[in-house]
Amino acid sequence: MWTTEGGLWKRGIGRVAGVDEVGRGPLAGPVVAAAVILPGSADAGHR
């Protein structure tokens, strides 16, 4: 994923949202989705 983000940053796209969803399936029950954009200085603990 860092490769994808790095390519976008090089093209001048500064904000990239991480998206996740959880649920039983598109037709089988409730689904919850979330997206977040953190500042570039945020340390997520990745090395």
Automatic annotation (TrEMBL):
Its EC number is 3.1.26.4. Residues 14-47 form the RNase H type-2 domain. The keyword Hydrolase applies. InterPro entries: RNase_HII/HIII_dom, RNaseH-like_sf, RNaseH_sf. The keyword Oxidoreductase does not apply. It catalyses: Endonucleolytic cleavage to 5'-phosphomonoester. GO terms for molecular function: RNA binding; RNA-DNA hybrid ribonuclease activity. Keywords: Endonuclease, Hydrolase, Nuclease. Belongs to the RNase HII family. Endonuclease that specifically degrades the RNA of RNA-DNA hybrids. This is Ribonuclease. It comes from Candidatus Tanganyikabacteria bacterium.
